């Protein structure tokens, strides 16, 4: 059995590795939750890369139905073609459009199937996929045959907790909650993205970053992906450690602050907190 | 071999099933994880626990069950001395402190408390020795012993020992959306599907008809898909006697917000008078005349009042009966205007319906609403939604 150990671009904690490997070994879907920006979606891509598998991604929206992941029957096209005596119309399978799950089931090798942001869909959506995820098969009425996975795909499901998922669905999944990385893990993650970053710049950037995260009452705390974007900008702008040292949020704002905070209310909140002298900045 | 552990989880109310237990054994059999406690902890967690709200409880049970086995992550922490002192200062009056002296002094009580905490392995309620709730032991809370030490949290199902172990998922246990799924499902009944917007759905019936008229040549007719266009106004009673119900109201509100696209909400206190407000922080400055609402929204809107309908009867029936200002018209008159204007209107009452008949104000409002008052249970909610759809259901 192939084991997932993270990749050169993706630091996976031991906890996460075990969750992924358990899901692969037992062929169960793995449900991933966690703060936005902690690499939930990325995980599926990295698993595919690490294990050398193809990946099928199904991005769920509020209008997505379970059926769309299986297949769709384009009756209108067939009807239209029949008007012109097209021979194609005799075979209904020409008008069956395969969905992402079907594609994953069909693939000759074990593949990775990502069902992204499952909580965005209708509240009944997960219930409609119970059998499909459990048995990895479904019935196509138009072709009157059962589509069964040749190789059970590695299914990764992400959720942002916008809707509660039904128990019956949860029973069929393994679950992992990606916690916000600790300082050391975070340093590892940044190093993966910027191998040449100077230690002192990183040190200062981390201070500012964790400083913001520690201020109470921020609506959207900056997370891993924001930190990486920010450091990228710092590098592009040739900022130095000295630039970051003088940041106090009142007189001097961090450069490219907008990439860390996505909410103008948070912006004001920090200013207010700083002016009031609430020094939540801990020096590491 | 881990059956006892599994049963313990089940007993403690974690939603684990046999299927998951078998999965765990299978995973162990396949050697997914190395044979050490830490890996077993990660593995069992990923297989058995399906929601972050349970992770904290799981950590505790795991720690308790595998007590004594080397765990680097969940090690027992010393009880912080100053924490206990602070609690005791906060909770005891001078008299009570004197009583403690009688029991052998604070030192001794503390020592005994520590000892009990060490010994105690499970949640406890009642009884007279263990720490827990409702007992006569001097420890725990809600008990009869005047020198009872209240340990952590607001009690209820939380046992004292939980407070000082390393529990990283603690935050997730409280701030997640709880139980709103059921409420959302109930609200879903309030679906009124209408066709509006872009025509991107085949109208089969008209297409067949037109194709026939077209001598068999296809004439495709499209139509807009059906969508839920129900429009709802929510009126929340805030403050005073509603405070104990804040939590359930918040749940209803958050569920409604995500399920209903056309939703507006307003606040009032006890009863509706000539003005209400939209932002509870601005309630004294930014009021909206009630007449404006009655004029602005047409009869298509469904109206939901949420309140416990518990007040002095004068607040509804009398002029000047409001507790906050002098009202020129009685609350009843204003409520009646709503009932007359909107055919689909309900009152949701979070208080226990057992007491409704005993509260005169509740009876009056129920009468004004022509019995369309429903309790805030799932059944009540479901019936309320049916009523809002125009079906004749009364409670």
Helices and strands in order:
The complex is a heterodimer of chains A (284) and B (395).
Chain A: H1 14-26, E1 30-34, H2 40-51, E2 55-59, H3 66-70, E3 71-73, H4 75-83, E4 96-98, H5 100-106, E5 112-116, H6 130-135, E6 137-140, E7 145-148, E8 154-158, H7 167-171, E9 174-178, H8 183-193, H9 199-214, H10 224-236, H11 241-245, H12 264-275
Helix pairs in contact in A: 8-10
Chain B: H1 3-11, H2 18-29, H3 37-48, H4 52-65, H5 81-91, H6 94-102, H7 105-119, H8 170-174, H9 180-188, E1 193-195, E2 201-202, H10 204-213, E3 222-223, E4 226-228, E5 231-237, H11 246-259, E6 262-268, E7 275-277, E8 287-289, H12 290-296, E9 302-306, H13 314-317, H14 331-341, E10 345-349, H15 360-368, E11 373-375, H16 378-388
Parallel strand pairs in B: 5-6, 5-9, 9-10, 10-11
Antiparallel strand pairs in B: 1-4, 2-3, 7-8
Explain this structure to me?
The complex is a heterodimer of chains A (284) and B (395). Chain A has 284 residues and is an alpha/beta fold. Chain A has helices spanning 14-26, 40-51, 66-70, 75-83, 100-106, 130-135, 167-171, 183-193, 199-214, 224-236, 241-245, 264-275, and strands spanning 30-34, 55-59, 71-73, 96-98, 112-116, 137-140, 145-148, 154-158, 174-178. In chain A, strands 2-5-8-1-9 form a five-stranded parallel sheet, with helices on both faces. A two-stranded antiparallel ribbon of chain A has the order 3-4. In chain A, a hairpin with a 4-residue loop joins strand 6 and strand 7. In chain A, helix 8 packs across helix 10 (224-236). The longest helix of chain A has 16 residues, at 199-214. In chain A, 32% of the residues are buried. The model of chain A is unreliable at 280-284 (pLDDT under 50). By secondary structure, chain B is an alpha/beta fold. In chain B, helix 2 (18-29) packs antiparallel against helix 3 (37-48) and helix 9 (180-188) crosses helix 11. Chain B is built from 16 helices and eleven strands. In chain B, the strands form four sheets. Chain B has a five-stranded parallel sheet with strand order 6-5-9-10-11, with helices on one face. In chain B, strands 1-4 form a two-stranded antiparallel sheet. A two-stranded antiparallel sheet of chain B has the order 2-3. Helices cover 41% and strands 11% of the residues of chain B. The interface between A and B is large, with 34 and 39 residues.
């Amino acid at each position: 059995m192939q084991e997932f150990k993270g990749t050169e671009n993706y630091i996976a904690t031991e906890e996460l590795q075990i969750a992924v490997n358990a899901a692969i070994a037992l062929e169960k879907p793995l449900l991933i939750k966690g703060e936005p920006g902690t690499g939930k979606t990325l995980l599926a891509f990295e698993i595919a890369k690490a294990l050398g598998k193809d990946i099928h991604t199904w991005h769920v929206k509020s209008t997505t139905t379970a059926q769309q992941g299986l297949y769709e029957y384009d009756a209108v096209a067939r009807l239209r073609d029949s008007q012109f005596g097209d021979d194609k119309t005799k075979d209904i399978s020409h008008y069956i459009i395969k969905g992402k799950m079907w594609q994953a089931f069909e693939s000759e090798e074990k593949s990775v199937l990502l069902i992204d942001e499952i909580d965005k869909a209708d509240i009944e959506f997960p219930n409609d996929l119970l059998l499909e995820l459990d048995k990895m098969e479904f019935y196509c009425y138009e072709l009157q045959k059962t589509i069964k996975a040749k190789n059970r795909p590695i299914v990764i499901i992400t959720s942002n907790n916008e809707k509660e998922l039904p128990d019956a669905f949860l029973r069929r999944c393994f679950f992992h909650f990606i916690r916000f990385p600790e300082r050391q893990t975070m340093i590892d993650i940044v190093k993966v993205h910027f191998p040449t970053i100077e230690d002192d710049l990183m040190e200062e950037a981390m201070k500012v970053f964790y400083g913001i995260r520690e201020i109470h009452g921020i609506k959207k705390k900056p997370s891993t992906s924001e930190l990486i974007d920010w450091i990228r900008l710092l590098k592009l702008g040739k900022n130095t450690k000295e630039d970051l040292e003088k940041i106090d949020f009142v007189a001097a704002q961090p450069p490219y602050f907008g990439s860390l905070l996505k909410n103008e209310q948070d912006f004001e909140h920090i200013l207010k907190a700083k002016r009031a002298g609430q020094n939540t900045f801990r020096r590491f | 071999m881990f059956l006892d552990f599994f049963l313990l989880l089940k007993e403690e109310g974690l939603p684990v099933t046999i299927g998951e237990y078998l999965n765990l054994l299978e995973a162990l059999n396949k050697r997914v994880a190395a044979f050490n406690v830490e890996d077993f902890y990660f593995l069992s967690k990923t297989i058995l626990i399906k929601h972050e709200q349970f992770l904290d409880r799981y950590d505790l049970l795991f720690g308790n069950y595998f007590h004594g086995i080397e765990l680097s992550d969940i090690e027992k922490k010393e009880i912080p001395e100053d924490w206990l002192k602070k609690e005791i200062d906060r909770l005891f009056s001078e008299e009570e402190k004197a009583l403690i002296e009688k029991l052998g002094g604070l030192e001794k009580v503390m020592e005994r408390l520590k000892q009990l905490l060490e010994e105690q392995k499970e949640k406890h309620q009642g009884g007279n020795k263990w720490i827990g709730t409702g007992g006569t032991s001097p420890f725990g809370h809600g008990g009869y012993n005047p020198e009872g030490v209240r340990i952590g949290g607001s009690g209820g199902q939380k046992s004292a020992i939980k407070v000082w172990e390393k529990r990283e998922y603690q935050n997730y246990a409280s701030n997640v959306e709880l139980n709103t799924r059921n409420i959302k499902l109930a609200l879903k009944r309030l679906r009124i599907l209408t066709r509006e917007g872009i025509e991107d759905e085949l109208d089969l019936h008209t297409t067949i008809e037109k194709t026939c008229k077209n001598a068999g040549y296809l004439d495709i007719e499209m139509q807009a898909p059906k969508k839920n266009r129900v429009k709802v106004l929510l009126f929340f009673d805030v403050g005073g006697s509603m405070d104990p119900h804040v939590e359930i109201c918040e749940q209803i509100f958050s569920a409604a917000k995500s399920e209903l696209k056309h939703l507006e909400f307003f606040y009032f206190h006890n009863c509706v008078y000539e003005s209400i407000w939209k932002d509870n922080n601005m309630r004294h400055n930014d009021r909206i005349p009630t007449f404006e609402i009655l004029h602005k929204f047409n009869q298509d809107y469904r109206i939901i009042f949420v309140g416990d309908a518990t007040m002095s009867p004068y607040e509804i029936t009398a002029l000047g009966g409001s507790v906050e200002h002098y009202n020129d018209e009685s609350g009843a008159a204003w409520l009646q205007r709503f009932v007359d204007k909107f055919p689909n209107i309900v009152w949701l009452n979070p208080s226990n319906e057992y007491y409704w008949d005993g509260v005169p104000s509740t009876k009056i409002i129920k009468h004004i609403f022509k019995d369309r008052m429903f309790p805030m249970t799932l059944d009540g909610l479901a019936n309320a939604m049916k009523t809002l759809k125009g079906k004749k259901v009364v409670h």
